[in-house]
Amino acid sequence: MVSMVTFRVDGMSCNGCSGKLQSALSNVPGVSSAQVTLDPGQAAIQYDEQKVTPVALQHVVEDVGFDVIV
Predict the structure, then answer these.
(1) What range(s) does the HMA domain occupy (predicted)?
(2) Count of beta carbons in the 10 Å neighbourhood of residue 16
(3) 45 pLDDT band (50/70/90 cuts)?
């Protein structure tokens, strides 16, 4: 089943940052779409909940070097 999650992301300062994060999220197995915007800092991710969890996606954001604001 396809689900959607949006994270507020802190720490991105340029289009290169948002592009790097979007690429990392798009390459996660189970992610069908990832749209990352610099202003506002957020990542909207469409994913298959049988293949990946929101917690795992949050870890990807953090592994790239940014913070998820909850």
Answers:
(1) 3-69
(2) 10
(3) very high
